[in-house]
Specification:
single chain, alpha/beta, Spore Coat Polysaccharide Biosynthesis Protein SpsA, Chain A, UDP N-Acetylglucosamine Acyltransferase, domain 1, 14-stranded parallel sheet, seven-stranded mixed sheet, 39 strands
Amino acid sequence: MSGGQTLTAGIILAAGEGTRMHSAHPKVLHTLAGKTFLQRVMTSVTALNPELTAVVVHHQADLVAQAARSYDSQVRIVRQDSRPGTGRAVQCAVDQLDGELRHDGQVLIVASDMPLLDADTLHSLLDYHVSSGDGATVLTVNLDDPTGYGRIIRDQDGRVLRIVEQRDATGTELAVKEVNTSVYVFETDLLRQAVRGLDDSNAQGEFYLTDALETARRLGRVGAFAAPDPLKVEGVNDRVQLADLAKAHNLRVCREFMRQGVTILDPSTTWIEDDVVIQQDAVILPGCFLQGHTEIASDAVIGPYTTLIDAIIEPQAKVERSRVQETRIGARANIGPWTYLRAGNVLAEDTKAGAFVEMKKATIDHGTKVPHLSYVGDAHIGHDSNVGGGSITANYDGVHKNRTEIGSEVHVGAGNLFVAPVQVGDGVTTGAGSVIRHPVEDGAMVYSTNDQHEVPDWKPAWER
């Protein structure tokens, strides 16, 4: 923070049930672009380096607390009692953390249902608060349609007089487009005094944090800082709002990649999560979902209709109509269509996993091709080998997963079955329909004999 000031605490309010989501899961654990609301807000708050970060929980408290600790092992968990309201949540936080809150610092209070709230916006709010000298500052936003939000009523000097909820506003107040976002900064001692007198003597029977601003205004000055980007402070109350916000955010992500030199043919059907990395001159075709820590190198072509999860795609690789998870795909590799690469695969350069291929924990060395209709699991295939269609590594014996080792420059006939654990040497050729149960030496040809029996003039029983 500027001015040598100290952010004493970041308090994140995550106690609400979120009834309008109509969900068995806490609202704050719903996701946008691959991360929960709570994770996103906690990441933004901790980026400001507060002396402590606290999350206030109540509804499904243990579940929310467990998630919060998974995002930050040092987070402090504050349990709100049964009395409702954001004001009560902050009262509980101040009571439980009081001995740790510096007298000469600031406390940031953030709602957890604004998944796009970013550290830059919070930094700007804190800098404004410190430079203004106000005792409390409200983060606001100007909306073309402020329906449903509390209006910010300022005095002639621009200070906040009050926040008026829509149901209580006059006609003149309803015309105000600046609204409350439920994000605040308080000087620590002022916050202590402001929340001390809160009660639930109102129509809703709740403790309102906005009422604390009335006390703060009597004891000092209350200012307001308008967020420059409305999308960053948009709240989510139901699944319609979540879908709209996710779509708007994703369109921004796609456009930013396009400005950096990535070709995205149809941003409306391309979904990219925040931790995805795409280099310039990569091409993303319609219907793709790029998730987790996926990395796509230059000149790779992804899609159409492909899902990548924590995948690494090297230059000039092509992946179409496939699902790839936790897999590294080498340069100039060709994947799909309709291929499923489960977790743990490494496909080197110039490899191929063709149509209707499934792989799991497979290592495929350079130049090797698994063209179609095959399953390769818990296996290693050396370089420049070719696997005939319909071949399977039978890796599971009912108790353990066993490995198959197939050498380099091996020619596997169609319809082979490798019963693991088994090793096949380099330069081996296998006959069509072979069942390989025992080790095969380098340079050998191996096949299985199956007697063919013919029954003349045969008819099924129902015809006989």
